[in-house]
Amino acid sequence: MHKGNSAKMGSMVVRGEVEATVEFTGKNTFFGKTASMLQQDTGMGHLQKMLLKIMMVLVGLSIVLCFTCFGYLLGTGISFRESISFTVVLLVASIPIAIEIVCTTTLALGSRQMATMGAIVTRLAAIEDLAGMNMLCSDKTGTLTLNKMVIQEDTPTFMAGVDQRALLRYAAMAAKWKEPPRDALDTLVLTTVDMASMEGVEMIDYMPFDPTIKRTEGTVIEDGKTFRTTKGAPNIIFQLCDDQAMRKAADTLVQSFGQRGIRALAVAISRKEGDDFGPWELVGMLTFLDPPRPDTKETVRRAMEFGVDVKMITGDHVLIAKETSRVLGLGLNVKDAKGLPSMGEDGKVPKDLHKTHGAMMMEADGFAQVYPEHKYLIVETLRQCGLAVGMTGDGVNDAPALKRADVGVAVQGATDAARAAADIVLTEPGLSTIVEGMVIARRIFQRMKTFINYRIAATLQLLFFFFIALFSFKPIDYYPGEAVANEEPWPEFFSLPVIMLMLITILNDGTLISIGYDNVNPSHMPEKWNLRALFMTSIILGVVAMGSSLLLLWACLDSYNPDGIFQKWGLPGLPYGKIITSIYLKVSISDFLTLFSARTHEGLFWTSRPSVILLICAGLALTISTILGSLWPKGQTDHVPTEGLALGDYTLMPLWIWVYCIVWWWIQDVIKVCGYWVMHRFNIFNINTDKLVNMRAAEAANDKKHKLARNSVGLVEGKLLNAKIQDAIEKVEHAEKAAAPGIQRKSLQRVSAGLRMSRVSGQPIGKGDAEAGRSVEDVHKQVEQLQQVVDAEIKGPAGEEIRQDMESIKKTAARLMIARKSASRQ
């Protein structure tokens, strides 16, 4: 303990005594704040909010239209019993009762798939949040790094003939190498040194580590020679040595290492001269660092490719954080705890964090020297900005931030408290599992989007079909009289039997569960619910299906008319019972075919192959519907005349219904694609800028509710572009060193210089949008010119790798240009 430090609850006095004052108790202590933050109410989940909005719209619309029908029927003299029966059946059939069940089933199937990847989901709705996650705050130690100190290759030595192997031996002689390691430094040295080389060494004295002297010392005999070795903090070891010039040079190196966050362990020896030991001589320094995991850099790059900004949060020193961030390509804008927010005096979270700290946190690449309170408030600030935030952690102090994040991820080996607070628990080390889980989550999101798109369309089709049919078609007006003398007069309004509506609903909902197994392509940008665009697509699908059903109803009712379509095409007139089964079969087939149109979203139905399970389920349901429509017994069903289409003399009617449905399905699909083209052409409902604005709660850069929406446009792409340019520079420089003198080396030097000039700022765009866009265009042009140089003058594997890197840079620059230009127009 040093002056000014505070002892935390649970600390024990090992030596000495002092008078102390208790500063905080209960919820005001360091751990008390952690407990109180865990109790903060997180509110309703994002998926629940979206489903509630959709349900409210559909239920509200259904109630209004159904009770309008009820009033109309009563007003036209229909009995109360018939009116209420029709209204209730239509209401039940039109309300998407299974929407929660199908979404939950889809999420459950997805969670099972994620579990096989090493990610156990403890809250199903977190999968939807993971699909929309655009900000990942990752703990450094153990997640981005190995959580294990490793000796670095950079080993400065100050004695002739000494290399890293010899230096490690001298360091091991300052420890009891034949016993289990006593501390982290001994573990680091003894697990790295070649223990076989220590066989001829005998230890005759040992001085263990003491905080007051900050070093260990061993006296050994090797080959009949006695000498002392010591290892410890560089500044302590330097004081033992007499060579001032060497001390100065070594101190400069230590400062250089420190600026990169690399720690050093100095080693010195003292040889025995007669009865005494000679002066201490500096042998060298071992450098060590908790290195990044081998796959972390590529994983971070992949997350950025998918539109997710990764920020590092650590309690380590800023210098260590900056070095790790640099190596991983995260950037060097690492903030310390001084500029971070704090809890209010009342212990509550300030509501204006997005105004006071939002811009700073969005621009930062990481945060260092933070406490649990800071982690929690970083997550809260980013959430207030409108971002979908993921957070990784493993300790008790991470629990509040894990609970507050949209997606809390407890990494492998996390404490019970962290696991309990998290939404996802990893069973595999590193960050790669999270990114793999994110891709799976985006596939699951696409499946839910397909279902909701279809469910809205199916609801609108049923609801408006019966609503318009009720007001527009009175079967009794089409009654052919003598042509069907053996039939009772047709009813005053059109309706299907209750059991037919229930069959349509049950078969549909049963088939929809198989959507959880459908083949989909994950989005390359974080997913968002653009409900207005989704409803518009559903309206297009529903209106076309409804219109074709109304057209068929009119044609069937008019089938005995000599000038009608049926008679002109040589089709027989239909008795009322077959009109009912015709509409039942048509609505059933249209519903299932609409599903295959809805699942491809902006593309035509053949652009994505459905899964075998979905095809089997849909095929089975369509077969059942066709058999029922064809062979339904003749008679009364729920007081409505019914008769199978294949009964009687003419048996081809089911085939013509199928042909009719398929033709209209193609028309429906083309109209859907045209609708998307119009929305994209005129940016209706911000369909173009929606995903360019990397905020879940904002659709446009000029969103008035979210002032920082513009800051999010191109933020990830800018960082990704800089990282790719830096990687390309390193590859070119490596190839330059390996190349023989000549034209190719000069070309590589030219390419390297050009790439350095191409570096652009990854900062978010502000008022100078047009200028920022032009700067990216310049990068694109510059890289194209450099690519021509590579194609013409640099051959072999090195040239091919550089070409691939440049192509990747151009693609990222193109994405950034689109984002910045779109934002600048708003």
UniProtKB/TrEMBL annotation:
Topology within the bilayer: Multi-pass membrane protein
Top-rank taxon, per record: Eukaryota
Entry GO MF terms: ATP binding; ATP hydrolysis activity; metal ion binding; P-type proton-exporting transporter activity
Record Gene3D superfamilies: Calcium-transporting ATPase, cytoplasmic domain N, Calcium-transporting ATPase, cytoplasmic transduction domain A, Calcium-transporting ATPase, transmembrane domain, HAD superfamily/HAD-like
A Pfam family this chain is assigned to: Hydrolase
Cellular component terms (Gene Ontology): plasma membrane
Transmembrane parts of this sequence: 54-74, 86-109, 452-473, 493-517, 529-555, 575-598, 610-632, 652-671
Gene Ontology annotations of biological process type: proton export across plasma membrane
Catalysed reaction equations from the record: ATP + H2O + H(+)(in) = ADP + phosphate + 2 H(+)(out)
Keyword vocabulary terms for this entry: ATP-binding, Hydrogen ion transport, Ion transport, Magnesium, Membrane, Metal-binding, Nucleotide-binding, Phosphoprotein, Translocase, Transmembrane, Transmembrane helix, Transport
Main location: membrane
E.C. number: 7.1.2.1
Subcellular localization(s) per the UniProt record: Cell membrane; Membrane
UniProt record similarity statement: Belongs to the cation transport ATPase (P-type) (TC 3.A.3) family. Type IIIA subfamily.
NCBIfam families: ATPase-IIIA_H, ATPase_P-type
UniProt-recorded name of the protein: Plasma membrane ATPase
Organism: Chlamydomonas euryale
